[in-house]
C-alpha cells in the first residue's frame, strides 16, 4: 500500500515503519497518525509479521504534533475532531513494537515513543513534553505514561518547564532500554526485533498483554490474568516444540500454532 507520510518494508518477520515528513522533522499531523495506525493494524493482522520496528530519521523520531493543524481550532471543534482516539488503537497492537529513536522525540513524538514496548535510542535523542511552551498540555498520554515512567517529581519538572532530557537521562529513568551511537542504534533495534520475531508468537503476544495489565490493574487481577495465559499456552504446538527442543538440546522452530 502506498502512503504519503510513512515508508514501510518487511525484513524477515519484522515489519518496518519509518515516519517520513522530513521537511517538518516528522511532525505528527492527522494523516500521518492515521496512516501509521492503519499500517500497524495491517501488520498486526499478518501472521508472517511477528514484530514491528518504528523509526524516524537520525535527526528526528518525531518533533511533536503539527501545530499548523491546531493553531486556529476551538474547544468544540477539537472535541468533535477527537484526534487522540486513534492513538488508543496503537495501544491495542498485539505484536511487540520496537522503537529506534534518534534526535527529537518531543510532545506527540515522546508520547508515540512511550506507546512502544522497547526503545533503542541514539546518543543524540532529546526526549520531552514541551506543550507548556505553547500554552497547552500533553493530550495523547504524556501526563500519564511519563509520570509512571519517571515518577511524579521528574514528570512535573519536564512538563512544567518543557525542558527535554538527554538519551542518557532517559536511560537512567527507564524511558529507553539502551543508548548507542547514532551510527548503530537502528541496526541494534532491527537486530532485537528480529530476535523477538523468532520466539513463539502466541507467547510473545500474551507476555506483552500481561505486562501491560501490570500497569493498569491491581496485582491480584494481573496475577490471575498471567496464570490463565500461562495455562492457555499449553494448548499450542509451540509449547510442545519449545519443551521438546529444550529436552533434546536444540533450538526450537516456532510456527505460531
From TrEMBL:
InterPro entries: ClpP/crotonase-like_dom_sf (IPR029045), Enoyl-CoA_hyd/isom_CS (IPR018376), Enoyl-CoA_hydra/iso (IPR001753), Enoyl-CoA_hydra_C (IPR014748). Gene3D superfamilies: 2-enoyl-CoA Hydratase, Chain A, domain 1, Lyase 2-enoyl-coa Hydratase, Chain A, domain 2. The keyword Transcription regulation does not apply. It comes from Ferviditalea candida. Keywords: Lyase. Belongs to the enoyl-CoA hydratase/isomerase family. It comes from the Bacteria. This is Enoyl-CoA hydratase-related protein. The lineage of its organism: Bacteria, Bacillati, Bacillota, Bacilli, Bacillales. Transmembrane segments: none annotated. The keyword Lyase applies.
Amino acid at each position: 500500500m502506498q502512503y504519503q507520510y510513512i515508508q514501510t518494508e518487511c525484513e524477515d518477520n519484522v515489519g518496518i515503519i519509518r515516519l517520513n515528513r522530513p521537511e517538518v522533522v516528522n511532525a505528527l499531523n492527522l494523516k500521518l497518525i492515521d496512516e501509521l495506525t492503519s499500517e500497524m493494524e495491517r501488520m498486526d493482522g499478518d501472521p508472517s509479521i511477528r514484530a514491528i520496528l518504528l523509526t524516524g530519521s537520525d535527526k528526528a523520531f518525531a518533533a511533536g504534533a503539527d501545530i499548523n493543524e491546531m493553531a486556529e481550532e476551538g474547544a468544540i471543534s477539537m472535541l468533535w475532531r477527537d484526534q487522540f482516539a486513534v492513538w488508543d488503537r496503537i495501544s491495542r497492537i498485539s505484536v511487540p513494537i520496537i522503537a529506534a529513536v534518534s534526535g527529537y522525540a518531543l510532545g506527540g513524538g515522546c508520547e508515540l515513543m512511550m506507546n512502544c514496548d522497547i526503545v533503542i535510542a541514539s546518543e543524540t535523542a532529546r526526549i520531552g513534553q514541551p506543550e507548556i511552551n505553547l500554552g497547552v498540555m500533553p493530550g495523547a498520554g504524556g501526563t500519564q505514561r511519563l509520570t509512571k515512567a519517571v515518577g511524579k517529581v521528574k514528570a512535573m519538572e519536564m512538563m512544567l518547564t518543557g525542558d527535554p532530557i538527554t538519551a542518557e537521562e532517559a536511560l537512567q529513568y527507564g524511558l529507553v532500554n539502551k543508548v548507542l551511537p547514532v551510527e548503530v542504534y537502528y541496526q541494534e533495534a532491527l537486530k532485537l526485533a528480529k530476535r523477538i520475531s523468532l520466539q513463539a508468537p502466541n507467547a510473545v503476544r500474551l507476555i506483552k498483554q500481561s505486562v501491560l495489565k501490570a500497569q493498569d490493574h491491581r496485582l491480584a487481577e494481573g496475577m490471575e490474568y498471567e496464570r490463565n495465559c500461562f495455562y492457555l499456552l499449553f494448548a499450542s504446538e509451540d509449547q510442545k516444540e519449545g519443551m521438546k527442543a529444550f529436552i533434546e538440546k536444540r533450538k526450537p522452530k516456532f510456527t505460531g500454532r
